[in-house]
Write a structure and sequence with these properties.
The protein is mainly α. 57% of the residues lie in helices and 0% in strands. The protein is built from seven helices and no strands. The chain is flat and about 95 Å long. The termini are far apart.
Length: 172
């Protein structure tokens, strides 16, 4: 004799963990037949069921929550007057100087990192008069193909256009 599925009102529970266990029991009692045995969706579902959520998702969630909590604590510490903190029994905290200094240091660090990255790129880039810009080991000279009589001209192979030709086209 086949069991009847529980009514929706019997699934009302107070714990999310209990709800998940009831749903798993329900899936085990009434499996959905899979005609292809292993499709991509069923393989992904089986992997997720077997191994749990992906670590990157968990780390992202924990990182997001931690960042929000740290920002809220920082804002409360920075904007709450000291007498209020003392009335709450909080007496050991950093000086309010650091509420201004830490964001300033972070902004200066980011700006200096961007400027130094830009400067390093300028240092590594060859001069405009350098032959390394015009030719390197991957340069391809343009080959001249002569057509014989009435034959059609083939498509030219890939090649680099010389700087002199570009200058003639643009400024000549």
């Amino acid at each position: 004799m086949e069991e009847t599925p529980p009514s929706p009102t019997s699934l009302v529970v107070s714990s999310p963990r209990r709800t998940l266990s009831l749903l798993r029991e329900r899936r085990q009692k009434h499996p959905i037949p899979d005609p292809d045995e292993k499709t991509a969706a069923s393989a992904a579902a089986a992997f997720a069921e077997e191994h749990g959520p992906k670590p990157s998702e968990v780390y992202g969630f924990v990182g997001c929550i931690t960042t929000v909590i740290a920002a809220v604590i920082f804002m409360v510490w920075a904007y709450t007057p000291e007498p209020w903190l003392h009335s709450l029994g909080i007496t050991y905290y950093p000086s309010k100087y650091w509420a201004i200094a830490i964001p300033s240091f972070l902004i200066v660090t980011v700006v200096l990192a961007m400027v130094s990255y830009l400067g390093l790129n300028f240092m590594v880039t060859p001069l405009p008069t350098s032959f390394n810009i015009m030719f390197d080991e991957y340069s391809r000279e343009r080959s001249t193909v002569t057509s014989l009589g009435g034959e059609e001209c083939p498509i030219e192979p890939i090649s680099d256009i010389g700087v002199d030709q570009i200058n003639n086209i643009m400024f000549g």
